[in-house]
Amino acid sequence: MIRHINKTLTFFTPDFSEHSETVFFDTGISAGFPSPAEDFKEERLSLDNILVKNKLATFYARVSGQSMIDAGLDDNDLLVIDRSLEPAHNRIAVCFLDGEFTVKRLRVEKDGVWLQPENPNYEPIQITEENDFVIWGIVTNVIKKV
Amino acid sequence: MYALVDCNNFYASCERVFNPSLRNKPIAILSNNDGCVIARSDEAKTLGLPMGAPAFKHKKFFEDHNIQVFSSNYPLYGDMSSRVMSILMQFTPDMEVYSIDEAFLQFKGFDNYNFKDYGTQIRKRILKWTGIPTCVGIAPTKALSKVANKIARKFPDETRGVYVIDSDKKRIKALKWLKIEDVWGIGRALQKRLKQKHINTAYQFTELSDEWVRKNFSITEWRLKKDLEGIPTLQLDEIASKKAIATTRSFEYTFSDIDNIKERVSTFATSCAEKLRKQKSSCHVILITLSSDTHRKEQPQHRASRMIKLPFATDSSLVISTEAVKSVNTIFKKGIKYKRAGVIVMGLVPTFNHQLHLFQHENPKHKPLMDTIDKLNTKYGDYKLKLANQDLKRTWKMRQERLSPRYTTNINEILKVK
């Protein structure tokens, strides 16, 4: 909404830049029997709305490798990452570790923070002072091609 | 109260979000066609890399100082900018997007707010959600919020990126610190005249009498003075709203042949017209610029521009291109090696309610033709439909040798995580 402010009047101009995903029922203006569907208008399902809770903070990344296969993250899967969520124990996070992006489960233990792979062939990584480490975002969904 | 929120070294910050190993490293971003430096990280500024530095002249400098150089990745910067702006909109309904990386917010009816806290919240949310660091300046007027922002940027340790001017004491202290050349909206010519009068700080400027400022300068400077005094005079969207669209580029090679230049100008004009139609504007004025390679001082230099006033507002590629190409004839000089041309359209009005001319108007066939061209070009991409005075064989490509991936707008270029 754009506001044009004058001394006495405030004008509003609608902003049409964002589409709303409402279903349009073209039932006409006939004087006959009204469409029974009219009262049951609902928004069509949109995967965007279901998978993306905060679109301003959502980014996508692609999995490369096998380290998280037991959590259902296979090579080439698409990750939905929400940067606005707080990192916490057991959440799956995209992290930047020593020059590389990696996706692992966060484990907060008494002895510090660990990155836990979900594949028995991979070793957990303990984060120490020496690491260049950033938690980049929290993985909320994984999308895979079948 | 007003706030100015400004992204720190925005382009460099965007690159860092998707490549955190660039943190604390010097970064330079090049203009379209990799011509010259248009953005620098703080580290690159400290090394003495000047703004606008031509890339080819600084190759060795980049290497010697290990500066990370990028082509401008506008799809990425544009997307990150729109995220930042949308987040800002969550903090107030009254906002003016001032440029790709800064916006003014107005807080009406926020009387009981602690603005230092609110500013910190704004800064934190943008950093967390997008990874872009910002500075926030808050003050009773627009011009003062710009000053507060400068202080926040200059003293990160003391301010933590947020500075509020909320007392006269703070205002005077800030204005005494601010040099006249750093005051927003005071151009170079004005600076000179003020300095001759021994006005060196923003504070001294506000000490001048209203009458003198009005008599010697214009209403704009008088309003700026009031704003700096803490009396809100400038409203949102009043200074320098963008009222022009430009397509200017360096050529791959230098051209001394007029037909080559006409082809480029026609292409740029077509691109401006397309941008006009996209935002449903029409233009009244076209400005054409031609320039030789100003970095090759040994060659004969020529820079020229010509402004064309149209009798009616238009968004037609045909009209804009024809007029632009015609004016190339009038400014082109033989024997000059041209390196750069530009088409700028100004005097923009909304296409659907512009003033009609009594005797002249646009050929009504243009509109459906333009609609069709736009539709086909969107559908098939790569500008399949062109005007005949554009080079049909060539698809003009920007030189972008150091382009980072379009992480947020192209599914094939998103981050890879192991």
UniProtKB/TrEMBL annotation, chain A:
Swiss-Prot/TrEMBL keywords: Autocatalytic cleavage, DNA damage, DNA repair, Hydrolase, Nucleotidyltransferase, SOS response, Transferase
Entry's Gene Ontology BP terms: DNA repair; regulation of DNA-templated transcription; SOS response
GO molecular function terms listed in the Swiss-Prot or TrEMBL record: DNA binding; DNA-directed DNA polymerase activity; hydrolase activity
Tagged with keyword Signal: no
Domain Peptidase S24/S26A/S26B/S26C: from-to ranges: 29-139
Pfam families referenced in this protein's UniProt entry, alphabetically: Peptidase_S24 (PF00717)
EC number: 2.7.7.7
Family: Belongs to the peptidase S24 family.
PANTHER family in the record: LEXA REPRESSOR (PTHR33516), LEXA REPRESSOR-RELATED (PTHR33516:SF2)
NCBIfam families: PRK10276.1
Stated name of the protein: Translesion error-prone DNA polymerase V autoproteolytic subunit
Source species: Formosa maritima
Taxonomy of the source species: Bacteria, Pseudomonadati, Bacteroidota, Flavobacteriia, Flavobacteriales
TrEMBL record, chain B:
Occurrences of domain UmuC (ranges): 2-187
Pfam families to which the protein is assigned, alphabetical: DUF4113, IMS, IMS_C
Family as reported in the entry's similarity comment: Belongs to the DNA polymerase type-Y family.
Biological-process GO terms, alphabetical: DNA repair; error-prone translesion synthesis; SOS response
UniProt keyword terms in alphabetical order: DNA damage, SOS mutagenesis, SOS response
Protein name as it appears in the record: Y-family DNA polymerase
Superkingdom of the organism of origin: Bacteria
InterPro entries: DNA/RNA_pol_sf, DNA_pol_Y-fam_little_finger, DNA_polymerase-Y, DUF4113, Rev_trsase/Diguanyl_cyclase, UmuC
Gene Ontology MF terms: damaged DNA binding; DNA-directed DNA polymerase activity
Entry keyword Oxidoreductase: no
